[in-house]
Amino acid sequence: MNILLHVCCGPCAIYPVTQMLNDGIRVSGYFYNPNIHPYREFKQRIQGVQQFADLTQLEVDIDTKYGLTEYLRKVVFHEHERCSLCYRMRLEEVAQKAKKKGVDAFSTTLLYSKHQNHECIKKIGAEIAEKYQIEFYYQDFRSGWQEGIEKAIEINLYRQAYCGCIYSEQERYDKVFSKKKQTIKTP
Ligand code: SF4
Q: Which CA distances in Å does 47 have to 72, 100, 151, 159, 171?
């Protein structure tokens, strides 16, 4: 089997790629993530993916176009459902590319993350497979969560502190701030 794997970042690629290779699957990667902001973070994640690809000889196609505007046009006024829009935007692109390349299926490293809405990704993957008539390769890669983290630390791969979009970046600081507030003792 030959799969085009959507790669969201270096650390999330480790376990799925390892598993696929162990299963005898031919895999190539595609970094397409207009949801990652700001630009400096976007560049840093690309470097992480490149580092991982160099280390493992993974063939990876990296879309270096910074997609802030494209992403915002999809989600503004629909922030409450932004993650499903974001999954769909990325997987649609990957499915179309997979179809053009003539591979057997497409998949995504998002299926590895415990922080993502796994069931939503699975559902959208199946819908897009139907739409473009190409298989969505599904596997619950979350079982390798710890293994992936340990490997990322071992190879000194950049590990991000938030999901990607400017909303998730804000939430990161909201959480830090509310934790700090809880620890401040009242007199
Ligand atoms: S939190 Fe993550 S998945 Fe959700 S919209 Fe932002 S970047 Fe996309």
A: 24, 26, 17, 11, 24
Instruction: Give the integer Cα–Cα distance in Å for 25 and 88.
Output: 24
- Ligand 1 atom closest to Cα of residue 167: 6
| pLDDT tens-place string over residues 132-149 | 999 999 999 999 999 999
> What pTM was estimated for this model as a whole?
0.93
CA of 105 to the centre of ligand 1 (A): 24
Q: Is the CB of 82 under 6 A from ligand 1?
A: yes
- Cβ pair 176, 34 in contact under 8 A: no
* Amino acid (one-letter) located at 166: I
Residue 157, helix vs strand vs coil? coil
CB 35 within 8 A of CB 90: yes
Q: For 10-39, write each residue's pLDDT tens digit.
A: 999 999 999 999 999 999 999 999 999 999
Name all domains of the chain by residue range, CATH numbers in brackets.
Answer: 2-183 (3.40.50.620)
